[in-house]
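Hey L., structure's done. Input below.
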Amino acid sequence: MNGGTGDTRGSGGSSGFGGLGGGSSSPTKTLRVLVVEDSITVLAHIREVLAAHPDIEVVGEAHDGATAVALCQRLRPDVVSMDMMLPGMNGQEATEAIMAHSPTPILIVSSSTNRGELLRTYEALAAGAVEVLEKPNAGQPEGEWERRYVTLLRLVARIRVITHVRARLGGGGGGGGGAGSAAAGATFAASRPAPLAPPPTPRRAVLALGASTGGPGALMKVLQALPAPAPLPVLIVMHINAVFSRGFAEWLDAQTPHRVRYAQGGERLRDLAGQVVLAPPDVHMIVRGGQIALVHTPPRHSCRPSVDELFESLAAENGPGVAAALLTGMGRDGAQGLLAIRRAGGATLAQDEASSMVYGMPREAAQLGAAERVLPLADIGPALLGLSGVAWGGAHT
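Output:
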C-alpha cells in the first residue's frame, strides 16, 4: 500500500499498501467501474468525481454486498470500488465472493477510524483486494482525495487478478495455512534431489521479509507455515500508510501462530527470538550494532520504510546469518538489499510471478541475480524453515 507513509510518491497520504502511488496512467479505453457504497453522501460524491472523466464509465452501483457480487458477475467491470460497511453481506464477504467466482481488481474505500472496519479491510486484502483508500474527509485539501481516488482506480484496474484460493475455500484466518502449507513443504522437498553429501546449513540469526502490494495475504501465508515459537527473530518491512497501520500487527498476530508487533528502537536483536517484528510506518527499520534502530532518513524508491534499508543493514551486520525473502509488490524496493544479503553469504528467496499479486519487486530481484531461488508463495515458508539452520519448536495450529 502506498501514500504519505508507506510510499511517499503520492501526496494523497491516505491510501494503504505500497507501490501504487506513482503518477497516473494514460487512458487507452473506457474504464468500467462498479461502485459499491451504502452511504448516499459518499456515493453522490463518487458519482460527481467520476463524471468529470469522460474515459470512466460507472457501469453499476450497489448498496449491499450481495448485489455487488451479482452485478460483478453480470457486468464484468474493469475495477470495483468497494465499501466495507455494507448491510447484509459486508465488504469483506463480498470481496471474498467476487475473488472466488468472478475475479476483478478491487479498490477498497474504507474508514480507518472504526476498528471493526479496519480488521475487515485487512481480511479483504488477504482475500485478494488490491488496494485501500481512506474515505474522503473534510480535513483534506480540496481536490486531493478526488485525484488520488481516480489515480488508484486506473492503477488497480491494471493489476492481473486470479481466482483466490483463500476466498474459494471460504476464508478462515489462522487455519488457512496448516495442511496446505505442509503439503507445499512436502512438494518443495520432493522436487529437489538430495545431494550425496549435503553441506551443513549455517545457523541463521534472523529471518527477514519484504512485501508491498498483495503483502497482507502473502505475509500471512508465510508466517502460517512457520511453527511457533520461532527460534530466531523475524523482521518484516511492509509498505503501509500510518492511516491503515493501526491494527495491522494485531490482525497479522491473530491470523498466525506468532506474536506480531511493531518494532521499538533500541531492542537487541538477540532478545527478539520468538517474535515477528514489523517496521513502523514512516520510519526505516535497520539493524545497527546488534540493535533495532528506527531512522527518519529520506525515503528509498519513494518508500519509507524501505525493504532495501533493512536488508542492506542485515547484510552488513549478520551476513551469512540472514535468510531473507522478497514477496509480491510493485517497484524495485528490496532487490538491491536482497543482492547484498546474497553477496554477504546469506540465503535469499523471491516469490514467483504466478503467485504474486504484483510481480515487480521479486522480478527485479530475480533479474539482478539476487534470489538464489524463485518459488511459489506456498513454498517460501517451508524453504525458510530449511534455510534457518535451527530447530523450530511446536506445531502449527
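Residues 2-14, 21-27, 165-197 have pLDDT under 50 and may be disordered. The chain is about 35% helix and 15% strand.

-- N.
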